[in-house]
Structures are given as structure tokens and as C-alpha cells.
């Protein structure tokens, strides 16, 4: 039978079309001339496509031929041939998609900037806080940001940041997650900001962090950051809220002020992610009693009048549609005056849930240069120690 490796080697649809033509020739031939027709077709294929292809195709062609030869209906054998053509087109499509992985995964759904309910000014603030509280707990339980913790820690080390300016913080961001504490991603000072500050959740985060986390009580827009607020900027699952020109403004401001920036997005324009979005309301129903502080009104708006689960589901679907793919993030950075800025863009997997996290990390090249100089100097020092040790050993031997 055909091995998976054989199928993968001949994923050219034109090759499989030749296969079907040869099979059809063999099926038309009489019993005594089937083998001759098979050999003749194989030789023709050899002359057209070169000596390498028939070797890869031989197991495919022979297996389909034997279906007809072993008293199986020749029409069924021909159907198998056409099925192989369909498989080859699918494999070719995957190969083309893999070529585009340098820019991230390819999405078939075009980005549309629809509205999210909890992001609207008319949405009641108490319900907005309940929505962000529920979303924060779901993300914490699922450890959705685990794949990017290492990259964030490295970026903070490279930039030597002792302060993080967290934008669009929602209910406090992922800074208190166990995985962040284990990877020591908690810098000296974290400042939470939001356009609609959830002061109660921010205060709770400050107390839980032993004053490592602070918050700005006033409204802060990520597109108009006050000059006095500085530090390595982070946006967790919030960058998709901004239109392309606003997103470019955020990136350009980081470049102009020479501040590092990290953007991390969980939603994607992908079927698997949207399936998980349909599970978010169920997760909210299960986890709501564990959200602290306990509020009877939270239970009312979750169970009796299920506004919160509905908003979570609707906004989750819209977030998947609004998300920027890695390719689109590259396009956003390509039009920026770089001013010596380095960008890292891609996707990371490896969390509890099989959901890749899209990331964009940027920082000044001077920081990267400093890192390279430091590592080079360390190597030089190590070489000097090694040389001195060898000289000392040679001196001892001479004595």
C-alpha cells in the first residue's frame, strides 16, 4: 500500500493527473495488455517529468493499479485515482500555506473592524467591569499567555526595564498569574491603565502584588499616552480594538519615545479559536461564583439575566474577526519610520489550550546593540581567563 511519505512526495496535482490518465489507459486495456499499458504509461510519465518523479509515484500508481488487477471494479479504481488528485490539491494548498508561515498563519477571513459591546461608551460601567473580571479569570485559569512568557521576560531583560506601562489593562492583566511569577516576569513596578479604569480590580491587584502593581486612576487612551507615563509598554488582547491608523499611531509613539512595546493577542481568525469562543459563556457560568469580591449583582447579570455571557460570546467572535494577523502586523510596522527599532512578530504555542498567541515585540536597536556588546565583552573576559589559566599551567609544567 501507499505510505504517507510517498503521498507527501508527490503532492503535485499535475503529477496525480498523469497518474489518473495512466490508470484510465490500463483500465481500457484488455486483461493481457493491462501490464503493458501500465509500463507504457509509466515510461511516458518518465519522459515528461524526469527520472525522479516516477520513483516517487511508483508505489501510488502500483497500489491503484492492483485495485483494478485484483478483480476490483475498474470504476472503483478510477475513483480512487480521482480521490488521490483531490488529496494532492489539498497537500499543495498546505505547502503554499507553509511557505507563508514566515509572516505567520494565513487567514482566509478578511479582517473587519466591527464593534464590541463592552468597548462602547454607552455600555454600563458595572457590567463592563463584570465582563472584564470574567474574561480575566478565564484567561488566568486557561494560562493562555503561557507561550509568550519567555519572550516577554527576555524583552524586559534586554531593555533593562524596571517599569511596565500596561495599556488597556481591563481587570488587571495577567501579571498575577502563576506562570508569570514562576518565570520572574514581574518587574519592579507595573502601572495599570485603561480607557475605562476598573478601579476596584486595580486596587485588588495592587494589594495582591504587595505594591509591585500600581494603577493610574484616570482614563488613559493607548493612542494618547501622557508624557509622564513611561516604561516598557504592554497590551494584552486589546490591540485589535484599534483601527489600522490608530494601531500605527501606537507603534509610532513607542518608536518616537524609544520605549519598548509588547503586544500579545489570543483571538485569531481561525475556526478552532472561534469554537473555543463558544465555550466561553459556559466557562463564565462555571467560574462566576469564584470571582472575588463576591457580588450578588454579578450573579443576577450572569444567571437570571445573562447579559455577561452573551456579551462575552458576542465580543469574543468580534475579537476574532478584528484581530491582526502576523502578516498584517508586519505591514503595520513596514510603513513606520523605524529610527533604529527592532521588531519581532510571530505566533507561539505551548499553553494549556491549543491556541497560539500572536505577538509583536519591539525595542530600540541601541538596546540590542548594548546586549550584543555585553555578550561580546563577556566572551572576551572568558577568553582572557582561559588564556591566563593556560599560561599558568604552562608555567607550572616548565618548572
Question: Can you walk through the features of this model?
Answer:
By secondary structure, the chain is of the alpha/beta class. The chain folds into two domains: 4-103; 117-364, Vaccinia Virus protein VP39 (Rossmann fold, 3-Layer(aba) Sandwich). Helix content is 56%, strand content 10%. It has helices at residues 4-9, 13-28, 34-49, 52-69, 74-99, 125-142, 149-159, 178-182, 199-208, 244-256, 271-287, 296-304, 307-322, 326-334, 365-398; strands spanning 163-167, 189-192, 213-215, 232-236, 261-265, 341-348, 357-364. A seven-stranded mixed sheet has the order 3-2-1-4-5-7-6, with helices on both faces. Strand 1, helix 8 (178-182) and strand 2 (189-192) form a beta-alpha-beta unit. Helix 2 packs antiparallel against helix 5 and helix 6 (125-142) crosses helix 11. The protein starts with a helix and ends with a helix.
Keyword list:
399 residues; alpha/beta; 2 domains; globular; disordered N terminus; disordered C terminus
Query: Given the helix and strand composition, which structural class is it?
Result: alpha/beta
User: What's the CATH topology label of the largest domain?
Assistant: Rossmann fold
For the sheet with most strands, the description reads:
7 strands, mixed
> What's the overall geometry?
globular
Q: Tell me the series of helices and strands, N- to C-terminal.
A: HHHHHHHEHEHEEHEHHHHEEH
| Terminus-to-terminus distance | 74 Å
Structural domains: how many = 2
Q: What would you say the CATH architecture of the largest domain is?
A: 3-Layer(aba) Sandwich
Number of helices: 15
The stretches of 5 or more residues where confidence is low (pLDDT under 50) are 1-14, 28-32, 51-56, 67-72, 95-106, 368-399
| Total beta strand runs | 7
Helix content: 55-70%
Determine the mean pLDDT. Answer: 75
Q: Specify the CATH homologous superfamily of the largest domain.
A: Vaccinia Virus protein VP39
Q: Percent of residues in beta strands?
A: 5-15%
Structural Rg: 30 Å
Q: Write down the CATH class of the largest domain.
A: Alpha Beta
Major sheet: arrangement of strands: 3-2-1-4-5-7-6
Amino acid at each position: 500500500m501507499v505510505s504517507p511519505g510517498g503521498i507527501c512526495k508527490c503532492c503535485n496535482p499535475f503529477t496525480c493527473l498523469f497518474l489518473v490518465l495512466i490508470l484510465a489507459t490500463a483500465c481500457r486495456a484488455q486483461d493481457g495488455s493491462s501490464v503493458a499499458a501500465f509500463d507504457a504509461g509509466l515510461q511516458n510519465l518518465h519522459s515528461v517529468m524526469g527520472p525522479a518523479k516516477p520513483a516517487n509515484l511508483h508505489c501510488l500508481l502500483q497500489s491503484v493499479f492492483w485495485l483494478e488487477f485484483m478483480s476490483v471494479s475498474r470504476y472503483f479504481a478510477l475513483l480512487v485515482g480521482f480521490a488521490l488528485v483531490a488529496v494532492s490539491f489539498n497537500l499543495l494548498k498546505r505547502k503554499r500555506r507553509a511557505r507563508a508561515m514566515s509572516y505567520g498563519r494565513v487567514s482566509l477571513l478578511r479582517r473587519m473592524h466591527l464593534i464590541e459591546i463592552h468597548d462602547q461608551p454607552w455600555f454600563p460601567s458595572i457590567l463592563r467591569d463584570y465582563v472584564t473580571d470574567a474574561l480575566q479569570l478565564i484567561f488566568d485559569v486557561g494560562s493562555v499567555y503561557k507561550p509568550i512568557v519567555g519572550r516577554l521576560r527576555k524583552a524586559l531583560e534586554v531593555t533593562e526595564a524596571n517599569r511596565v506601562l500596561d495599556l488597556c489593562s481591563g481587570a488587571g492583566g495577567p501579571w498575577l498569574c502563576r506562570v508569570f511569577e514562576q518565570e520572574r516576569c514581574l518587574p519592579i513596578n507595573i502601572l495599570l491603565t485603561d480607557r475605562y479604569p476598573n478601579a476596584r480590580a486595580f486596587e485588588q491587584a495592587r494589594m495582591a502584588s504587595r505594591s509591585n502593581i500600581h494603577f493610574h486612576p484616570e482614563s488613559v487612551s493607548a493612542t494618547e499616552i501622557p508624557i509622564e507615563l513611561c516604561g516598557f509598554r504592554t497590551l494584552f488582547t486589546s490591540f485589535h480594538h484599534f483601527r489600522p491608523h490608530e494601531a500605527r499611531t501606537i507603534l509610532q509613539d513607542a518608536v518616537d519615545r524609544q520605549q519598548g512595546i509588547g503586544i500579545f493577542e489570543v483571538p485569531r481568525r481561525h475556526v478552532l479559536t472561534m469554537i473555543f469562543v463558544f465555550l466561553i459563556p459556559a466557562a463564565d457560568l462555571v467560574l462566576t461564583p469564584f470571582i472575588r469580591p463576591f457580588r450578588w449583582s454579578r450573579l443576577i447579570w450572569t444567571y437570571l439575566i445573562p447579559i455577561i455571557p452573551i456579551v462575552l460570546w458576542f465580543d469574543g467572535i468580534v475579537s476574532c474577526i478584528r484581530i491582526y494577523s502576523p502578516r498584517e502586523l508586519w505591514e503595520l510596522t513596514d510603513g513606520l519610520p523605524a529610527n533604529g527599532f527592532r521588531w519581532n512578530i510571530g505566533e507561539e504555542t505551548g499553553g494549556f489550550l491549543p491556541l497560539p498567541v500572536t505577538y509583536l515585540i519591539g525595542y530600540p536597536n541601541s538596546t540590542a546593540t548594548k546586549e550584543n556588546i555585553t555578550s561580546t565583552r563577556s566572551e572576551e573576559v572568558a577568553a582572557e581567563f582561559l588564556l591566563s589559566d593556560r599560561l599558568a599551567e604552562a608555567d607550572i609544567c616548565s618548572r
